[in-house]
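Quick start: load a record and inspect it. Here is Fe2OG dioxygenase domain-containing protein:
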Amino acid sequence: MATTQPSPETPLHAPKLTLIKSLAESGDLTSIPSDYTYSTNPIQPAVSDPEEYSIPVIIDFSLLTSGDPDQRSKIIQDLGKACEDWGGFMLINHGVPESLIKAVIDVCKEFFNLTEDEKREFEGKHVFDPIKCGTSLHGRQDKVLFWRHFLKVIVHPEFRFPYKSTGFSELAFEFCKRIRQLVRELLKVISRNLGLEECYIEKTLDLESGFQLFTTNLYPPCPQPELAIGIPPHCDHGLLTILAQNEIGGLQVQHNGKWVNVDALSDCFFVNIGDHLEILSN
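Running the structure step on this input writes:
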């Protein structure tokens, strides 16, 4: 069978996707492209009455580690109930400096402000690449593209990070180290709540050799927000997600069939229970 060879002018690869930040900032954008239109299982508006539905439990981490026995016992029970009923909780006084959190958020913004060509250096080709930057999970393979720009990095057991922008890697290293310490302490409390030894989860899952991911998401302004979606409804596949929000917020959780806004509190993390912990705890 005869075959034809592509001429030098024939493109060998599909055109590059325009990164969502550049698309959103184009001055003549008044509507979103059709491949960003999300119409399957549309998200319902969040409950508006804060007295009817709100995240009810705020856990004071300092009392978990240094409170008197009665305080500690009560908070352990509150944390367990929040995990069962809501799948997460707000965490205050967690020991991660507010200045570090702000610095990490600021340098994330600097990364997203890099040129498209600079960010494409970290684009990644596969889901499990140690550094992956993009818009949607699989680029042009996805039928619907998400209205976000993300950077996802595997930072443990081996720390790998983009060398741009200036100072990003050093700040992220310190932040991720502190988050790993925080997660270890939280897992001790969760183990005790389950009636297990404090180090049961860490030992059983061999956390020292497990993956830790650093992910940052940018959601640019959208001219038709009712048609687009930043991230579709999902469960987190890991063990625990420690989430820091900026002042804009936007996170929702589903509770009893209703979507509830998770309002960003100053110097506060939202801790989300992932699939690994749900399976382990049965």
